[in-house]
Amino acid sequence: MKVLITGTSQGIGKAIAELFLKEGHEVIGIDRQLPSIVNASYTHYQLDIRDYMALPEIRDVNILINNAGTQNEDDIDINLKALIRITEKYGVQNEIRSILNVGSASAHTGSEFPEYCASKGGVLAYTKNVAMRVASFGATCNSLDPGGVLTPLNDCVINDSELWEQIMAETPLKKWATSEEIAQWVYFLTVTNTFCTGQSIVVDGGESISRKFIWKDE
Questions:
Q1: Catalytic: 22?
Q2: For residue 42, which phi and psi values (nearest 5 degrees)?
Q3: Is residue 161 part of a domain?
Q4: Is residue 116 annotated as a catalytic residue, yes or no?
Q5: Residue 62 sits in a domain of what CATH number?
Q6: What residues have CB less than 8 Å from 178, skipping those under 6 apart?
Q7: Which residue is catalytic, options 104, 106, 179, 200?
Q8: 139-173: pLDDT as tens digits
Q9: How far is Cα 44 from Cα 217, in angstroms, rounded to an integer?
Q10: Nearest to residue 127, comparing CAs of 179, 65, 59?
Q11: Which of 13, 40, 76, 166 could form a disulfide bond with 7, CB atoms 3.0-4.6 angstroms apart?
Q12: Which is catalytic among the residues 42, 90, 116, 187?
């Protein structure tokens, strides 16, 4: 299938792209950074997803994965508004089979930065809206909402032993997910799953049970 993924140069997005390539899919990535994947079945577009006019013409996308996101950098413009534009351009069409929005457990708890929580909360509502509209194509649309994930974006707390101890104290499973674990969930919800739709799946090791947000002071 033809799979379009945003934010593929590192972290979760890269792991997702690599898994789909391993499983034999054609993968198209969009990221403002240079490509980090070399594969004959991978095409990379280097651009900022906020630049709607620069988005390439890609027809007949079967699976759309909105992974690109940020924290404390125009969160609503990137995490929500750009996601909406990407989805309306590539996702709501006859050939679509699945749309997956990578959200955040913070959308359910509100225990993070204000604009970040607002942007991810908007993704939850938009996911339900899209699910209703793509159902006529036989397609599903869900959001996958991780808690802590071991990515470069989180190094500032991962590498701070005192903060990390506090975070683990609030996390029942005493660990964060790897990017590869999140990629497996993405694959399940977009390829294996054909019936669950309009849902927001929290995968956070039980972190949202305590709802206490710990981060590094500026």
A1: no
A2: -115, 130
A3: no
A4: yes
A5: 3.40.50.720
A6: 15, 149, 150
A7: 104
A8: 999 999 999 999 988 899 999 999 999 999 888 99
A9: 36
A10: 65
A11: 13
A12: 116
Element (H, E) at 13: helix 11-22
Q: Which of 42, 120, 143, 179 is catalytic?
A: 120
Element (H, E) at 127: helix 114-134
Amino acid, single-letter form, for residue 48: D
Task: Let me know if residue 167 belongs to a domain.
Answer: no
Is residue 42 annotated as a catalytic residue, yes or no? no
Rounded to 10 deg, the angle between the 179-187 and 11-22 helix axes is 50
Rg (CA), the chain: 17
Structural domain that includes position 18: 2-149+177-209
Q: Which residue has the tokens 């039980």?
A: 206
pLDDT reading at 208 higher than 90: no
The string of pLDDT tens digits covering residues 73-97 is 999 999 999 999 999 999 999 999 9
> Which residue has tokens 């990515």?
151
Cross-strand pairs, 44: 29
**pTM of the predicted protein model:** 0.93
Cα 209 from Cα 171, distance rounded (Å): 8
Own/partner pairs, 166-173, CB within 8 angstroms, 24+ separation = 166/214, 167/214, 170/207, 170/210, 170/212, 170/214, 171/147, 171/205, 171/206, 171/207, 171/210, 172/205, 172/206, 172/207, 172/209, 173/205, 173/206
95: which DSSP letter?
T
pLDDT of residue 209: 79
